[in-house]
Amino acid sequence: MVWTRHRHVAVPGNVAVMYGGKIRVLPMSGSPSDIGHAHGSELGGSIRQYLDDRLDLAGDPYWSGRTAELESIVGLAQETLAAHRSYSEPLYEEMVAMASAAGINSAEAVVVGGFTDLIDVVRVAGGPDVEEDDCTGVIDADNGVLAQTWDMHASAGEFVYLFDIEPLGEPRAKVQTTAGCVGQMGINEAGIAVGINNLTSRGKIGVTWPFVVRKVLQQSNLDDAVEMVLSADLAGGHNFFIVGPDGTGCNIEAMPGSRKVTRVETGTFSHTNHCLDSGTRSEEGARNPIGAESSLTRLELANSYKSDLDALFADPSINRGAASPHDVATCGAVIMRTGPRTIEAVWGQPGLHDWETFGFG
User: Fold this and answer.
1) Are 218 and 170 within 8 A, CB to CB?
2) Apex CA 150: angle with CA 155 and CA 132, to 5°?
3) What is the structure's pLDDT at 17?
4) Phi, psi of 106 (to 5 degrees)
5) Cα–Cα–Cα angle for 236, 20, 361, nearest 5°?
6) Per-residue pLDDT tens for 204-259?
7) Which of 11, 200, 236, 311 is the right S-S partner for 117, CB 3.0 to 4.6 Å?
């Protein structure tokens, strides 16, 4: 079955494989500027290519809800810089160093890394229902597991990396992310794991979600990690999964104006791309009906699989292929285990590409 949404098509199954393979690992260490410089120097060409792709999509009404000129998109990103610096001076320093080494400016770095929050800001002026149909995640508190797909426009799959980040004075972290993005999901050596899925919101000037992911990974206990989400002045909506060293998890629906924390001490908790809480739901923006239906379907499937991760990642509604570069597809996936402090990662669709395991030993 092919679902048509405007000019984009979402296709369950494996129609066109444009990315994936043995995951590329980039080790980085030292001060924030050292880490940023290494990131930008090593991946500068990919970062600039990814920026071009995301600028194109940010001005596409089928993604952002309205047509926008490139200058206005970068201008909105420029307005968020103060919020990023206020939230974390060290991460801001890292981002600026990365941008400089890659040959882009700091506002463009926000476009590359914080795309899904930025289009929440772009779409505020109004437009058609938009595409929000990406990522399925599960917390399994009994086994200390956080597992998720990372679904995005398929062209993003070309830019997936695993960063091995060893900052001065902070826990070392393994982070699956993309070129130009400071962090998308990961686990640190203290046993804190964090993942995300996207929520539709009416955005505002604020900090984008990759900064929040990395600040969570600077923590050593669950309560402090959760506080990093609750204290963020967010630009857009995301759902954050966090699991602590003892396996206890928290799911946080984090919208620009409200938060809903659900503590997961036993059993499993699943989440996709719609709010479950009435308070956060009141902030949701208009959504394409096909995407809304997909989110509900994937949530039901994830709930039915519970801790059966093989079945979860085998389901073609959850592990998705694409027919063209700007269709939504599974670009990667992770299984993070906080007991042994490991991350199992795959670049591309699980099943088409192998899982690889990384730890801190």
Assistant:
1) yes
2) 80
3) 55
4) -65, -35
5) 85
6) 999 999 999 999 999 999 999 999 999 999 999 999 999 999 999 999 999 999 99
7) 236
Amino acid, res. 182: V
Q: Distance between CA atoms of 174 and 113, rounded to whole angstroms? A: 17
22 closest CA partner among 123, 149, 144, 162? 162
CA distance 258 to 254: 6
Among the listed ranges 85-94, 122-131, 178-187, 267-276, which one has the minimum average pLDDT value?
122-131
Sign, CA torsion 179/180/184/186: positive
Among all chains, which residue has been given the structure tokens 């890659």?
102
Cβ proximity of 183 and 218 under 8 Å? no
Provide φ and ψ at 25, rounded to 5°: -110, 130
